[in-house]
Amino acid sequence: MGTLTETIESRVVLGALGDVAGRRLLDVGCGDGTYAIALARQGARVVGADLSAEMVRSAHARAQSDCRSPVFVRANLDRLPFSDRSFDAVLAVTVLCFTTEFAKALREIHRVLAPGGRLVLGELHRWSLWALWRGIRGMLGSPIWRAAQFRSASQLRGALEAAGFVVESVRGAVYYPPWTPAARILWRADRHLAGLTTAGAAFLVLSACRPPSLPARGHD
């Protein structure tokens, strides 16, 4: 089920980014570099940033055999070590739900994104059986899920708009429950449901742009 879920999420995320060839792209919270490496192979000039030194080392190791390797750096999401307007696109997948400085992180992303650039945000949905399951695991002692903060589509939209973005689209993914037999039966409905509603989706993908007329936000 994990592989199936990752495949569905990746399809929606990469579809929201569109053609990345030749574009300067930042993957914040890049983890082990899965998205960064895939996007570099599509011709993007990718920088992957993660707070965890272990994840940065893992990403470097995974990318060593790739002729178009991304650059990986250790960085705090709420204080990115990049100049204003450095990137044409920013990707943030399941990272903002783990930061305590959510609004500040969005302002930082806005600052490093070039006018007219696109942010693709993939987040875990607040209203789903997956969120309920993860919340229970958090209450039972899982440090990862105890620290997570799930948000609804309207909350994410509002936060993006408050940070200066214009939201272009909101799509859902992973409509089946966290139960392998159900996933095997229901996963084919994902493409259809994604165009109809976010209700029940475990994963949300928001595409937003930084309007050309708005100044950068955050520190220099």
Description:
- This protein is an alpha/beta fold and 220 residues long.
- The chain has one domain (2-125, 150-174, 203-209): Vaccinia Virus protein VP39 (Rossmann fold), CATH 3.40.50.150.
- The protein contains nine helices and seven strands, in the order H-E-H-E-H-E-E-H-E-H-H-H-E-H-H-E.
- It has a seven-stranded mixed sheet with strand order 3-2-1-4-5-7-6, sandwiched between helices.
- The termini are far apart.
- The model has no long low-confidence stretch (mean pLDDT 93).
CATH superfamily: Vaccinia Virus protein VP39
Lateral arrangement of strands in the main beta sheet: 3-2-1-4-5-7-6
Radius of gyration using CA atoms only: 17 Å
Q: State the helicity in percent bands.
A: 25-40%
Alpha-beta classification: alpha/beta
From the spread of the alpha carbons, the general shape counts as globular
Mean pLDDT: 93
Distance between the termini: 43 Å
CATH class: Alpha Beta
- Strand fraction equals 15-25%
Low-confidence stretches: none
Q: According to CATH, what is the topology?
A: Rossmann fold
Task: Report the strand count.
Answer: 7
- Tell me about the biggest sheet? 7 strands, mixed
Any idea what the CATH architecture is? 3-Layer(aba) Sandwich
Give short descriptive properties of this protein.
220 residues; alpha/beta; Rossmann fold; 9 helices; 38% helix
